[in-house]
From TrEMBL:
It comes from Opuntia streptacantha. This is SAWADEE domain-containing protein. GO terms for molecular function: chromatin binding. It comes from the Eukaryota. Residues 102-220 form the SAWADEE domain.
Length: 223
């Protein structure tokens, strides 16, 4: 009896170890900005003219960009597996329900402990504790407001604005605040009119325990 064995061939990397190390550092620093064509062209030219490339084929900018694209995909997959999606609950947002884009996530800013829609996930990193952090650019803000956010504790599905016909979904739950930014203490039900819901919701903010009366367009529901 004869047995056959399939031969496994590993394709060596086109990049030298020092080049990979440099790209790793650049990716951690720049995130998605490392995919810029002009940046990749400059980096490819630098690699191709280095002494470690003597006798080896030159590196093209497409190869450099492809490496960064693969790195981005790998880290995005890791982040998707780590994003926490808590149970449904009522959540308060610091803006009205108008003009919400179809963004999938929101993140908690360390500047004011408020939740903002995520425009882009720029980069990811693992801490020595094993925790995953994402560098986010908040929708409507520039790069000066980019932040590193703990994915498990500070990233979640985007909150959903309520329509006037959905005000009945808001419930009084004074003893439940596990995944909320504010919880409802009292609901002053009122008849709806042509402008929509006229109900008033008395809420207590988790951050400073202050109590306010708010209309429906200031409240979002957790998905």
């Amino acid at each position: 009896m004869e047995a056959t064995m399939e031969e496994v061939i590993e394709t060596p990397s086109i990049f030298a170890g020092s080049e990979i190390s440099e790209m790793e550092n650049l990716f951690r620093e720049l995130g998605k900005d490392s995919l810029n064509q002009e940046f990749c062209q400059e980096l490819a030219a630098t690699f191709s003219s280095s002494t470690c490339r003597v006798g080896k084929p030159a590196i093209s900018w497409e190869q450099v960009q492809g490496w960064f694209q693969d790195k981005q995909k790998d880290l995005q997959a890791s982040a998707d597996n780590c994003v926490s999606r808590p149970d449904s609950s009522v959540v308060l947002k610091g803006k009205t329900s108008a003009d919400f884009s179809e963004l999938a996530f929101e993140a908690k800013s360390a500047r004011d402990n408020a939740w903002y829609d995520v425009g882009t996930f720029l980069n990811y990193r693992f801490l020595s504790t094993g925790e995953l952090e994402a560098r986010v650019r908040f929708a409507g803000f520039g790069n000066s407001h980019d932040e590193w956010v703990n994915v498990r504790e500070g990233v979640r599905e985007r909150s959903i604005p309520l329509e006037a016909s959905e005000c009945h979904k808001v419930k009084e739950r004074p003893d439940y605040a596990v995944y909320t930014d504010a919880h409802v203490l009292e609901i002053q039900r009122r008849l709806h009119d042509i402008k929509g819901c006229r109900c008033i919701f008395v809420v207590r903010f988790d951050e400073d325990k202050t109590v306010e009366k708010l209309p429906l367009n200031k409240i979002c529901c957790r998905p």
